């Protein structure tokens, strides 16, 4: 059903005719049609994209006014309406459309155009209507096309979320892990490869490696975000700038930079910015890479905290909540599991974004709403999950130093340090003999005649770990 219920409605119209819309909503006929035509799933266009679109409309109105292609009074009320969105006075209830719409995002662009026009007209006339004096197409969408404003808004929204949410979360996690490592530079433990005992190391080295990984992920995210600074605004439908006055794109982008606080520039080739979204795909793959890094760390911590009595038991995790509805006293690594699920979703989002970008046909990329859904969703998920993981697990996580030393003492892989002196085959024989007879390395060496080796010095864990 495309029309709203007859009670409490008003009549709006577009080029296809009249539509009944809810009287208390600001959208118009095209949004109402889209609600009926795309009643698909529960996923809605991210509100962060809507807010970024409002910033774009704000900048476009001011640029059009300065170029004398939009009346100053109309520009003023469009700006005021846009600020109602950016400042939260017009919220999610006015922007109800599904992600699953036209690949250009035209329905969402028109939803924003209609809401801003109706609010502007309310300011001027006291009536909620898109019928004028402010028109959604002729005034709010002046000098623009869905094809250039949707990717422009996506870049701005991703920059905002990435710089304000994700980068600080990654910084905090890296710093917290580094602090854990620095506090335990002398805590010796056994290293593990293939889930088997390996040579000794310290927990400081292990946590320091995690911190370094997160720092590298943060640097890659920073670089990918920098690629989103370039905007196709002013290219209109295909990149030629048809129906936009000279200087519109440059002027609007300067204003957009001022209002958002981002260092934005016009894309060198706006044809490419409309036909393909390479910077967005690079962002998506970088988010996937960060998810891979975070999943490795979460899984490492989960393994090291296993037990606590019958597993590795090397890490003690905060007991945030009861771990089982059946087994009293059980504490689970729930923050690790939550982060692992988020990382899986981010990897899936990147797969969807990659497949969607196979539809960048000729002069138009045909999956802009899906890219907004996946990339903005991934940024938000990672930022939230990393913050939760840091606050509720890493801050309170502590190594069990006694357990680490105990397991390091049981490992036979310290014998690797004797290889330069005895040779690989001889050391392998010592290790096999120790394992088969349940002997410490010192006793196995003595039993095999290696009595001249100062075992305590040669195999001391602190020496072998570099501690």
Keywords, separated by commas or semicolons:
467 residues, mainly alpha, Fumarase C, Chain B, domain 1, Fumarase C, Chain A, domain 2, 3 domains, two-stranded antiparallel ribbon, 8% strand
Write the layout of secondary structure elements.
Elements: E1 9-14, E2 17-22, H1 29-37, H2 47-66, H3 72-86, H4 106-125, H5 136-140, H6 146-183, E3 188-193, E4 196-202, H7 203-226, E5 230-231, H8 248-260, E6 265-266, H9 270-275, H10 278-304, E7 315-316, H11 334-356, E8 360-361, E9 364-365, H12 368-394, E10 398-399, H13 401-410, H14 419-422, H15 424-437, H16 441-447, H17 455-458, H18 461-465
Parallel strand pairs: 5-6
Antiparallel strand pairs: 1-2, 3-4, 7-10, 8-9
Please report the distance between the alpha carbons of the first and last residues. Answer: 71 Å
Structural class: mainly alpha
Uncertain runs:
none
Query: Can you list the strand order of the major beta sheet?
Result: 1-2
């Amino acid at each position: 059903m495309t029309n709203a219920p007859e009670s409490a409605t008003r009549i709006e119209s577009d080029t296809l005719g009249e539509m009944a819309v809810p009287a208390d909503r600001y959208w118009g006929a095209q949004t109402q049609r889209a609600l009926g035509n795309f009643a698909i799933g529960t996923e809605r266009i991210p509100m962060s994209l809507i807010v970024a679109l409002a910033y774009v409309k704000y900048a476009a109105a001011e640029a059009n006014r300065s170029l004398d292609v939009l009346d100053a009074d109309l520009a003023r009320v469009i700006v005021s309406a846009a600020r109602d969105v950016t400042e939260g006075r017009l919220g999610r209830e006015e922007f109800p459309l599904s992600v699953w719409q036209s690949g250009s995002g035209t329905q969402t662009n028109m939803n924003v155009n209609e809401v801003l026009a109706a609010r502007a007209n309310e300011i001027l006339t006291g009536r909620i209507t898109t019928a004028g004096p402010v028109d959604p197409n002729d005034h709010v969408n002046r000098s623009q096309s869905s094809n250039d404003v949707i990717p422009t808004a996506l870049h701005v929204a991703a920059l905002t979320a990435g710089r304000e949410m994700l980068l600080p979360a990654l910084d905090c996690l890296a710093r917290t892990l580094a602090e854990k490592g620095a506090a335990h530079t002398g805590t010796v433990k056994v290293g593990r490869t293939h889930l088997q005992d390996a040579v000794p190391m310290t927990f400081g080295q292990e946590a320091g490696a995690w911190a370094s990984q997160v720092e590298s992920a943060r640097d890659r995210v920073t670089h990918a975000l920098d690629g989103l600074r370039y905007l196709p605004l002013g290219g209109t439908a295909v990149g030629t700038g048809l129906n936009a006055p000279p200087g519109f794109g440059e002027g609007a982008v300067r204003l957009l930079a001022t209002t958002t606080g981002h260092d934005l520039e016009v894309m060198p080739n706006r044809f490419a910015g409309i036909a393909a979204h390479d910077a967005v795909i690079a962002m998506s793959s970088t988010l996937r890479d960060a998810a891979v890094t975070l999943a490795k760390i979460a899984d490492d911590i989960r393994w090291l905290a296993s037990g606590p009595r019958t597993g590795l038991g090397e890490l003690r995790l905060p007991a945030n909540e009861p771990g089982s509805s059946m087994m009293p006293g059980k504490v689970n690594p729930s923050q690790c599991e939550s982060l692992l699920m988020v990382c899986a979703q981010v990897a899936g989002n990147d797969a969807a974004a990659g497949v969607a970008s196979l539809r960048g046909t000729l002069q138009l990329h045909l999956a802009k709403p899906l890219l907004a859904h996946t990339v903005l969703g991934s940024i938000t998920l990672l930022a939230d999950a990393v913050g939760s993981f840091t606050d509720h697990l890493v801050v309170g996580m502590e190594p069990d130093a006694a357990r680490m030393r105990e397991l390091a003492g049981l490992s036979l892989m310290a014998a690797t340090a004797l290889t330069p002196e005895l040779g690989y085959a001889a050391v392998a024989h010592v290790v096999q003999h120790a394992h088969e007879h349940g002997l410490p390395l010192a006793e196995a060496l003595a039993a095999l005649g290696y009595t001249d080796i100062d075992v305590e010095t040669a195999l001391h864990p602190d020496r072998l770990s570099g501690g």
